[in-house]
Amino acid sequence: MTEILILFLAGLFLPLFPLSMGFNWLLGRMQSPVLRALALLLWPQAGLLLISQLEFAVPDWFLLLALASSGFYAFRALALRDVGEWSGFLATSSWAFLWIPIHAGTAIMNVQLYALGFSVPLVLLAFLGAGLERRFGAACTGLYGGLAESIPRFSTILVLVVLAIIATPLFPAFFIMLVTITQAMSVMPAIAAGIAVVWLLWSWAGALLLQGLVTGTPDDSRPADLHTGAILGYALILVLLLVAGIAGMGVLS
Amino acid sequence: MTMALGKKLGIRSMVYVSGEPIPFFWPMRSFIHHNPLHGLEDLPFAEAVAIGTRLFHGRGFLPRRDYKRYLAENRVATGELEAGIEEFVAKQASVPGIDLERWLMILLTSLDHTVALKGKFADAIDIHAALTDTKPDTGRPVDESALADTLRAELLGDRPVYEAVDILFGTEIQTDLDELVIKTCLDFFDEGQSVWHMPGREQGLFNAWSDLAAHHDRLLLDGLPVGRVLADRTEPEEVIAAVMDSLGIPRSEWVACFTREIAQLHGWAGFIRWRGNAKRYHWTRRFPADLVDFLAIRLTLAQALLNTRRHRKLPVTRMALEDAISTHTRETWLRYELHSGSILPAWLRPVEEALLRGREPLVDKVFEDYSLALRKQEADTQAERLRELAAACGDEDVLDRLPPDQLDDLLRILQQFEREEGMIWLQAMEKHAMGHLLENVNLTLPEERDKRPFAQALFCIDTRSERIRRHLESAGDYETFGIAGFFGVPISFMELGKGSEMHLCPVLLKPKNLVLEIATAPAGDVAALSVLEKLLHELKESVLTPYVTVEAIGMLFGFDMIGKTIMPQGYARWRQRLYREKPGTHLLLDKLDREQANSIVRAVQRAVVGKAVELEIGLKPEVITDDMVRELREAALGNTTSAPTLLEACSLTDEEERDFIQRLRNVYRIDAAFARLQMEQVGRIGFSLEEQTNFVAQALSSIGLKSGMSRFVLLVGHGSTSENNPYESALDCGACGGNHGLTNAKALAHMANRPQVRNRLRYHGIIIPEDTWFIPAMHDTVSDRLRLYELERIPSSHVIYLDRLRSGLVAASRLCAQERLPELQLKPAPVDPGSANRDAHRNAVDWSQVRPEWGLSGNAYFIIGRRNLTRDFPLKGRAFLHSYDYRADARRRLLESILTGPLVVGQWINMEHYFSTVDNERFGSGSKVYHNVAGRFGVMTGNLSDLRTGLPSQTVLKQGQPWHQPIRLVTVIEAPFEHAWRSIEEVATIKHLVRNGWIRLMIIDPEKKVAKIYADDDWISLPLPLDATTPQSESIAS
């Protein structure tokens, strides 16, 4: 019974539909970027801690549920305009994939690093979203385009962060996705194909997000761009992510 | 159900009228520069820009920051700027405590952004409260009837219903509709790009489409209920009327609605308009289409999209929209705010949620809260902008002292000023350009020469000729002239190996004479490379073969790509060697007499009859005798009844013989009527002696070259060579209908070299010395190479001078490239002539070069006068130069013909550049990088878009900033005032263009030494030369 409860709670923290709604509801209520960042960092880690207590293997059908949850949130993210919601959905979609290495018996420590690889860019996006709210009143696509022209430094960081989230090569998420697909192949090749499709949906969602913010003609408002300190901070974390990604290539070999 | 003819004609005429503001779009194979607002040229410039910008959703003037940059570069007459402000202020009431002239000048020159915002809720009382930091009065309710009126103005009127639905409900009907219409157009208008063609195109656009749509809607149109909209209507006019009636739009508003509808895809609409008008265009004759078809398809699809299941709960008629506005004003307003993108970002989610829940009390509550927030935000922003202006003026305290009513006056004035400031900037830039020219013109007559120049050269009036002329003049004893690049000879040209005619003259003219290019050498085999290229093209364009092609021979394309990219010049030279050279050709320029024409028609008929006997009767060629052919031909023409020689040669019965003769008539067109038609066609070939004499006389007289001709007179046509450039034709000669000018140069040279023509020219007062020889030449404007043609024809006595002539031309080319190349670099730096020449040649063959040359970008002046006027003043390729000597044109005929043709073309070119610069996305064609060729006649952005009209950003912008300075064409006529003005008055087109301000007119009277500038129905006189100690701009403005 305790095992089932643990599994249930793990399904809440490594979000599987419909338990995933809890995380997104909670994230939607958090106004402070620090709180959001903490939630994005710690939520899956809590799930992994619970999993480490499990004494039996995760059933196969969990993988199907994980894929379905991930696909559902990735698909829904295509229609979202709010940056906060978008990051919550992408978090849900990516964390759900952690069930695959867990099922494949990957050491929990490694899976914790995978979770971190997914979470860190989302944390950066949470802070960038807060920056947009400060400047424009809301972090939404389609309301004020042309950030590339009006706040070019902010836009550069935003683009890199979104690329990191959607698992572009050299960022950790890219290698994590490769590992995940490889592991899924050994269980059910169809799931691997499904993961690839979800990955494509992420790219699409990312492109739409950037299209609604970065491109276009800026309006008449004159927001302040990122100051040097903030740029250095973001750049440092992105470089660390890249280094981590490249170092993580060893995982594949 | 058939509509009455009268009603159909009524709808046709409405569509015709509604299409008038849409400019023609010519196929890009022969790019024609045009004014995007050509249809509004009967209105004053400012008014037309206001209408045009609304219709095409574009911008008519540059943003202020660009004008400020020009100001910083000293390219704006500040005096004129002040005068413009003064004139504006004179019409306004004063605002106590504010020096309006000073404020407006500072507004123009110090601030980048708009100061007076168009608030929806905030009024002067709110702004006053924000300025004085007092508590705003939040108790005043929103005037809902005013709100409803605003919504009606925004959503109803001529706005299509689906667009209003999109704005209120965030649907994307317009996007879907545009996509479907574009796909239809691509299918129907394809000119050979696709391998699979739309069936039934011969029936016309609407019929072909409706046949397909009614039967294949699931497959082609995503299950749209098109069949239900079409019902049993077969005529496009019926469909248009039915849809408009079902949308509930009153007939009085149809024309405005049609215009708005057609303008949604104005590129396609402009192409269809042009095509419908070009009755002799090959594709028009094969697959007819017009705007009525286009509109019927668009309205059908729009109606089908509105009627889909997912839109069934939405208001999809005019009445339903009106009802929503009247009865649910608040909700409609919130919807408008949400989906039009103007909502305050922080309110996005609350408004979205309230509308989603749809409970009226909640909507009311959100409306009230939102309207308060919007009012406050508007008031705060407006107050901040005003404070910024006041601070820039050093009058920080003034605003606090203004009561709301005066604040309201100030805001109204600022709003109006910011609406009109574009014209003030424009006029100030134009005045600067005029002053710059007037400072440098030379009114003194050139010294009498004791001997004639070594050579004279007639160049096109094109702005690019200005540079090369200047350098040629500096390279030796050369005299140059400017004349429209078709040299006054309108030609319909049929090139060797081409089956269609090409008009080599301005599009305003319809050439009567046909010129054929015929080979002087026997036709050889087709080069192996050409066959291979054709094969590759077909493999690439087919449906399945590309997959195999890539696997099998993809590597070949890789080699090609590497060669073109790494060493474009060497690779292009190597490839050139693989092609067979074009055989020597000759132009049929002399008119055939009746006997010759008859002989040609007879020869063609004989050849056809011979072939028919061979194919139908099966006789061998050696058995087919001349007598047999003659008898059959006579019989087919009805002159005799039988052909005995044929009967002797084979065993035909009388009936078979009659049948064969009948087939000759019906199938092979050997009959009297067709022979007459052939005679007419043959009669178009060439020019009669009289025509030739007149063309030469007209060309030489128009530039004042009636005597003193040199040994060599070069007729220099121009064209442009570039790779991978759909806009190549835009860089060719506009006066030759977007083609190279060499054929016209050859034609005029041939005429002027004929002794019979020269004899006749004496009666026109034109004496061409015996040793004068006209040589056709070509100026390649990308490489600046000047190449002479038909040298094999020049008299042997002249050969000895050719080296000197070539040296001069080479020097001019290199110097011209040296002047021009730095402008093409990202960071201009001086280059030596050798490397400039090399780089310029590379540009012509480099497939990755998006800007092989600047083309006509930078054009600003059209100067009609003697060369001496600007000979010593480098105009840097900014002027069209038309040679003209008023002393040789007492009856003003020559001037009128210059105004009628070349100036109109110049104005189109100028306006195309103007609008492509001020709004490259809407009036231009955006970046070339994303362009794809559509149907072989246009380009689209990406794989599906409106046809991109106008010029690409690479032609008018440099690193995102305007490179072309957008001003209206400053037209200068050097002639006595009366002489020039009366000519203008005689030419109605130009008179309207001048009076409506589409061109800026300046008359330089060399006799009275005065310049007169036309402005606002008045003349400003300036004595010449301008006082060099006074800044030119100030002297003009004063």
* Unreliable sequence segments of chain A: none
Number of strands of chain B: 19
Helix percentage range of chain B:
40-55%
Q: Strand order across the biggest sheet of chain B? A: 11-10-16-17-18-19
Give me the Rg of chain A, rounded.
18 Å
Decide which structural class fits the backbone of chain B: alpha/beta
Mean pLDDT of chain A: 89
Largest interface, chains and sizes: A-B, 13 and 11 residues
Order of helices and strands of chain A: HHHHHHHHHHHH
Number of helices of chain A: 12
Spans of at least 5 consecutive residues with low confidence of chain B: 1031-1038
Oligomeric state, counting identical vs distinct chains: heterodimer
Largest sheet of chain A: none
Structure in words:
Chain A has one domain. Helices cover 76% and strands 0% of the residues of chain A. Chain A is globular, with a radius of gyration of 18 Å. In chain A, helix 1 runs antiparallel to helix 3, helix 2 packs antiparallel against helix 5 and helix 3 (33-53) packs antiparallel against helix 7 (108-136). Chain A is built from twelve helices and no strands. Among the domains of chain B are: 64-142 and 379-419, no CATH class; 452-480 and 687-721 and 732-860, no CATH class; 528-573, no CATH class; 594-683, no CATH class. In chain B, helix 1 packs across helix 13 (254-263), helix 17 packs across helix 18 and helix 28 crosses helix 30. Chain A binds chain B through residues 81-82, 133, 136-140, 142-144, 220, 222, and chain B through 113-114, 117, 341, 343-349.
